[in-house]
Amino acid sequence: MTSTEQTLTAQQEAGDRRRWFALAIVMTAAFMDLVDVTIVNIAIPSIKQDAGASLSQIQWITAGYALAFAAGLITGGRLGDIHGRRRLFLIGIAGFTVASALCGFAANPEMLVASRILQGGMAAMMVPQVLSIVHATFPAHERGKVFGLFGAVVGLGAVSGPLLGALLTEWNLFGLHWRPIFLINLPVGIVAFLLGRRYITESRAPKAVKLDLVGVALVTLGLLMLLYPLTRGRELGWPLWGYLSMAGAFGVFAALVVYERRKAARDGSPLIELSLFRVKSFAAGIAVQTVFGVALGIFFLVWTLYMQIGLGWSPLRAGLTGVPFSLAVSTAAGMSVQKLVPRFGRGVLQAGALIMATGVLLYIWESHHYGLGIASWQMALPLVVMGVGMGLIVAPLTDAVLSEVPREHAGSASGLINTVQQMGNALGLGLVSVVFFGVIGDKLTRAQVGPAFVNGFQHALWWVAGVMGVIFLLMSALPKRPAQHVEGAADAPVAEKEPELVP
């Protein structure tokens, strides 16, 4: 081998190492976001007790993150296309790390809520760049292996988040109680930022879609007008302004539709591509994603409060109780995509909705039958059934929704799917004040807390079961056999053309 050939080989090997380092960095960032969503839920009761957070502030600690993430997700993707994915990724991860520090050192619940909203906004800058950078860094024939690794990271985040949150809260490191669940992001974020500057190659879209800041403002305003009265209404005695605000939210959403139509006609860069809703399967799928997000938002917050405050369990016991659920979701998700959906099509998703509803009803029965004496092992059966049902839905749903979407709108459709799921989650968290806190009552004595939370949990689960029934009906509009013909259909919003590498 000549010296020139040796030099070229060394350069190729260095480039290969560089892109795999870049992959590890962006996967770490994705893992941080996934864990941060699940890690907070398990610490909510500790935050309530230690920081003195009110019930509405508890909801906003979780819903504020989801709302900011949803509102900025599409814009974050477009900013990366315009100004560079590496640049936006670094801005996002730096901001996410700073926001995590502010959460960890929050002096009061109000500061914690504001910091969580900032954290969600920074996640919206960071997360859309992850799969865009993968597209820019790896050729098409290698992306299958890369997305398989991404799926493993998602599964690991789902399992490890609650356990990590439980351990950090239980250990009470340095007397900081719940704060380490946020502070753990600091060393990870700093290292990812420094390595990202060195190893991630900059890329942009050759022809990026323009920003739609007015659309973002209208979406955010409409959701705030809907969510704020929901979370504060019970505490304030459901004042008239709350009902007027919620009614006015639908007027804002109507104005959003009118504006988006004009924006599309003017420059072809709306926040929401309304023409997609002419595709029956896409419209139904968006409804499924939204309603499914509502169900998950209600369940996970109420479930945590039920176990730790109602039953008096430690964070670690609550975290370990959820392990069968996480494992069932991961296992069923893998089977649904690889073996079941190719053979049975839409029926797998509908079966998932019915199985999850069955698990919810079984959980209601067990909670009623065993009361305050229920054990972790007795919860395993309904949680596994629910996890199997959820796994059959979450993995193949995106492909089913996108299977009839025109190829040129794949990026817009993918971004919209991720956005509405987060919006549904925020709405579900807001509804907790109605379906759970509205049932348990105020000023409970210590003896009344347990029975009240058990009753509230059962009431909230009836809502979740009803939502799963609605999802089952909506799924009848999905294609019988989803065709995976849209490249990047399951991705976050990415460029619709091959990205342009920037030296």
UniProtKB/TrEMBL annotation:
Q: Where does it sit, as one GO cellular component term?
A: plasma membrane
GO molecular function (one): transmembrane transporter activity
Q: Is Transport a UniProt keyword of this protein?
A: yes
Q: Which SUPFAM superfamilies match?
A: MFS general substrate transporter (SSF103473)
Q: Where in the cell is it found?
A: Cell membrane
Highest taxon of the source? Bacteria
What's one Pfam family here? MFS_1
Q: Where are the transmembrane segments?
A: 20-44, 56-76, 88-107, 113-134, 146-164, 176-196, 208-228, 240-260, 281-306, 318-335, 347-365, 377-402, 423-440, 460-478
Where would I find the Major facilitator superfamily (MFS) profile domain in this sequence? 22-484
Q: Entry's PANTHER family?
A: ACTINORHODIN TRANSPORTER-RELATED (PTHR42718:SF39), MAJOR FACILITATOR SUPERFAMILY MULTIDRUG TRANSPORTER MFSC (PTHR42718)
Q: Under what name is this protein listed?
A: EmrB/QacA subfamily drug resistance transporter
